[in-house]
């Protein structure tokens, strides 16, 4: 009964965040790209990427803003100077572009048809979340929906299968190496992980490791509610990161752990297969907690015997992520995408 009540409360909370604000429409001058964003005050990699997109567009001369539900709301868990506006202060025109995250899927029909629409689907596995049984697929019957933007080939394949009639474009998540980078000093014996990811599986894996004796002498460091800078500090002071992701759109936590110099062990979340390379990480079959614990015990034992080998794996991982997912690549792919919609630098609102 308690579990049912908890699930019901979480479902109601999720539905609240999935309902868009009332949006006004009217005439306007020029074009602005508005990224609709929930007023979610706690750390979220997806929201961080919404802010990043807006920053990159504005830096390139494309008029853009994060569109929050309430005037005055802005994320405070990372440093930014992103242009943020509230829904009550905005009037959308036919020349504007409204970029809508996948979490609003069940409510897309409530949005106005005046602006052009793009769905920014950062996790394809959430596409059908919140839909009532028998409801129509979320991206059909929307005459102003022009494209779907996503962040990994795994999500792109999912979306192209479900919606073959829609153009789906991948813009990679760039990793900010000014924030996330390896330490210049050998880290202490610490294991970082995110407890909000698959907490039941995490409890089993950690319980197995404790019972086996593998965690003796190691400090477990949960990353929960931490700011972006604090998360980066924890990661670069931990030689090992346990990844408990499930059906991820990309997998920012393990990617950020890798670029911080961690040897990552755990679940790929499927999308993470593209960077969980065997040369510097240990991927485990999804949901296999015993295999996870066995692999983790082996890595911890190797660290005890040859710590330099695990640190080298972390350095190799950092170099791979740095080269493969630079912000410069994200910027180029983002501008190419908007260029395909005829949204180019210098095309903005008239005074």
Topology of this structure?
Layout: H1 2-18, E1 24-25, E2 33-37, H2 45-59, E3 64-68, E4 84-86, E5 91-92, E6 97-101, E7 116-121, E8 145-150, H3 153-162, E9 168-170, E10 190-193, H4 199-212, E11 219-222, H5 228-236, E12 240-244, H6 252-259, E13 263-267, E14 281-284, H7 289-305, H8 307-324, H9 327-340
Write a short abstract of this structure.
The protein is α/β, with parallel strands linked by helices and 351 residues long. 35% of the residues lie in helices and 17% in strands. It folds into two domains: 2-173 and 327-340, Glycogen Phosphorylase B (Rossmann fold), CATH 3.40.50; 190-324, Rossmann fold.
Could you explain how this protein is built, in words?
- The structure is a single chain.
- Residues 1-12 have low confidence and may be disordered.
- The relative contact order is 0.13.
- Helix 4 packs across helix 7 (289-305), helix 6 (252-259) crosses helix 8 (307-324) and helix 7 (289-305) crosses helix 8.
- The chain has 2 domains: 2-173 and 327-340, 3-Layer(aba) Sandwich (Rossmann fold); 190-324, Glycogen Phosphorylase B (Rossmann fold), CATH 3.40.50.
- The strands form 3 sheets. A 7-stranded parallel sheet has the order 4-3-2-6-7-8-9. Strands 11-10-12-13-14 form a 5-stranded parallel sheet, sandwiched between helices.
- It has 351 residues and is an alpha/beta fold.
- It contains 9 helices and 14 strands.
């Amino acid at each position: 009964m308690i579990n049912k009540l908890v699930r019901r409360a979480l479902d109601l909370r999720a539905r609240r965040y999935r309902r868009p604000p009332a949006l006004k429409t009217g005439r306007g001058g020029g074009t602005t790209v508005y990224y609709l964003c929930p007023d979610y005050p706690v750390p979220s990699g997806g929201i961080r990427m919404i802010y990043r997109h807006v920053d990159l567009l504005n830096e390139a001369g494309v008029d853009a803003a994060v569109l929050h539900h309430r005037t005055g709301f802005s994320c405070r868990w990372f440093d930014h100077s992103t242009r943020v506006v509230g829904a009550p202060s905005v009037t959308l025109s036919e020349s504007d572009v409204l970029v809508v995250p996948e979490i609003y899927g069940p409510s897309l029909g409530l949005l106005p048809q005046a602006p052009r629409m793009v769905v920014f689907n950062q996790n394809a596995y959430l596409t059908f979340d919140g839909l009532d049984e028998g409801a129509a697929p979320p991206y059909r019957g929307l005459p102003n929906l022009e494209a779907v933007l996503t962040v990994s080939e795994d999500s792109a394949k999912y979306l192209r299968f479900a919606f073959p009639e829609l153009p789906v474009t991948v813009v990679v998540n760039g990793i900010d190496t000014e924030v996330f980078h390896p330490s210049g000093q050998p880290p202490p014996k610490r294991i970082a992980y995110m407890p909000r990811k698959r907490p039941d599986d995490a409890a089993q894996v950690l319980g197995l490791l404790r019972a086996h004796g593998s965690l003796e002498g190691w400090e477990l460091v949960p990353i929960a509610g931490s700011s972006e800078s604090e998360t980066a500090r924890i990661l670069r002071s931990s030689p090992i990161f346990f990844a408990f992701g499930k059906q991820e759109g990309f997998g920012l936590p393990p990617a950020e752990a890798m670029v911080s110099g961690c040897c990552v062990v755990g679940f790929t979340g499927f999308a993470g297969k593209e960077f969980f390379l065997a040369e510097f990480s240990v991927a485990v079959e999804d949901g296999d907690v015993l295999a996870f614990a066995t692999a983790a015990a082996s890595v911890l034992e190797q660290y005890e015997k040859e710590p330099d080998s695990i640190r080298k794996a972390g350095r190799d991982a950092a170099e791979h992520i740095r080269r493969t997912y630079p912000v410069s690549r994200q910027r180029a792919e983002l501008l190419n995408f908007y260029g395909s919609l005829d949204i180019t630098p210098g095309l903005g609102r008239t005074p």
